[in-house]
Amino acid sequence: YTLAGGVQSGRIENQKYAQANAYYGLLSGLTLGVNADYPINPIEDEKPTFAAEATVHPFGSLLLSSSYSPENALECNLNYSRPSLVNINAGYTKYYENGFWNKMEQIDNISVALSSPLKIRKSYLSLRFRFTQDRYPLYEIRNMNYGFKLPLYKLHLSYIGSYKISDFVNRTDKQLTSQLFAATSFVRWFRPQFKIDYDHNMNQISKYGVYIQKRMFKLGQLSFSYEHNNLTASNMFMIGFNIFNNFANFTSRANINDDRIIFTQTQKGSIRFDQETGTFRFDRRNGLGLGTAVVWPFLDENYNGALDEGEELLTELKANVGGARGKRAGGKKLYYYDGLRPYDEYIVQIDPYSLDNPMLQPAHENFRVLINPNTVTSISVPVVTAGEINGIVRRNMADGTVGVGGIKIKVINELTGKEVIITTFNNGEYFYLGVVPGMYKAFPDPEQLAQYGYTSDPPHVTFQVKTVEGGDIVENLNFLIIPKE
Fold first, then answer.
1. How many domains does the chain fold into?
2. CA nearest 274: which of 306, 296, 254, 255?
3. 3-class DSSP assignment, residue 214
């Protein structure tokens, strides 16, 4: 649910609006939403606008969505994405008569976009195609864009073509242009880029240019570009210098176009407040509208699942939060994961092997977390001192018993259902480090015993790994396998 208010500049100068949105996940594959825009001081024929939305995820990689705004538009979209195979986007929008928002009296819009990577030996040929059609009462416009990207050793080629057809009542206009882009990396410290624009209607090169970028002092980049426009017989030079660090991006740029010089400076970044620690974080990336998660791993000495005063933070523990990049920040050097989609549930996977001490284990390896926008979501990860279990598997012989190797022992946590399989050594012994405190059941694999014609005595053993300083040791989890009668 969101509420917003602000001033719009551009089409309607300084018009004030209030906005409200609400979305609800009715089912795991169905989300419904309503939106409203309300002008504070409406002008001309401007009215409040309302819309209803629905998004359906029927199966796999297919996503369907639709929205309807009375007296404005009806929109339907389709997305099918298989990153290593194909990506398809298609949409249709029907516009209604509206003297304020549809002054051009557009009838409808159709759009289709396809992209696919084709593997050629060790390289990928990326193909792209996009088609749009806009219909109006007196004319119709169709646009097609197509192209490819192809890396060849240390030469990278990119081509983009554009074909536009404008149908009017008494004539048809056609425009065909091509753009070829090439980048080289033959020399490590010098990697120029070249671009050529060709106008097929005029059968001539319309524009060409060269672009050079060079990293400076690890945190800076110097860029130079030159473009010549044949149609206007003009030249443009651009010199830029960019400094980027964890705080912000600073860019200075000078454009020289014949007898005119334009100098610009920009600074970009974001300031984020962590309510848990009461500290501010500065980042050069945009954070507005996105969410952040921070992982708080701690040694849970009393095994209550909460971070109590005096308990040690284990800042070396890493996690995987939806593939987001983790970065240490703040005085406690905790891992922050930025750029997360708001209102989405993420599965947080803890990496137990990132801890130096093998006897320390996360109490839970996976967490489900709901991310909110513009806030830092804390994820408390209790880490406990794990225990050790050991035992032996024997079978009877004429002169006594002997250990049996290769037998699989299954150990199941009775609370979480997590299963660990241990294989006995040649002498029949087995042991396992890193068993978190809790109640467990251990038993030889029944299917394996059935294949060998054996049963186990006892069939299973129930035991508890206790929370003790230094880790609990549970010994003598022994089994005797005997032939079936």
1. 3
2. 296
3. strand
Indicate whether 351 and 425 sit together in one domain: no
Do 367 and 392 lie in one domain? The reply is no
Counting Cβ atoms within 10 Å, is residue 171 exposed (0-12), middle (13-18) or buried (19+)?
Answer: exposed
Rounded distance between C-alpha atoms, residue 260 and residue 140, angstroms = 38
Is residue 168, in this structure, part of any structural domain at all?
Answer: no
Q: What is the pTM of this model?
A: 0.56
Q: For the segment 291-329, what is each residue's pLDDT rounded down to a tens digit? A: 888 888 898 887 788 888 888 888 888 888 877 878 887
Rounded Cα distance, 40 and 464, in Å = 66
Domain that holds residue 398: 387-483
Distance from C-alpha of 291 to C-alpha of 311, rounded to nearest angstrom: 28
pLDDT band, very low/low/confident/very high, at 11 (cuts 50, 70, 90):
low
Q: Are 407 and 427 in contact (CB under 8 A)?
A: no
For residues 49 and 13, state if they share a domain. Answer: yes
Q: Which pLDDT does position 70 carry in this prediction? A: 94
Q: Which H or E run contains 63?
A: strand 62-69
Q: State how far the Cα of 173 lies from the Cα of 40, in Å rounded to an integer.
A: 43
Q: Give the phi and the psi of residue 158 in degrees, each rounded to 5.
A: -140, 135
Which CATH number characterizes residue 280's domain?
2.60.40.2610
- Residue 144 is assigned to a structural domain of this protein: no
Strand stretches in 70-219, DSSP E: 73-82, 86-95, 108-120, 123-135, 140-152, 155-167, 172-184, 193-199, 204-216
pLDDT value of position 10: 60
Q: For residue 194, tell me if it sits in a domain.
A: no
Beta-carbon count within 10 A of 295 CB:
22
Residues 6+ apart with CB under 8 A from 439: 413, 414, 415, 462, 463, 464
Identify whether residues 94 and 10 lie together within a single domain.
Answer: yes
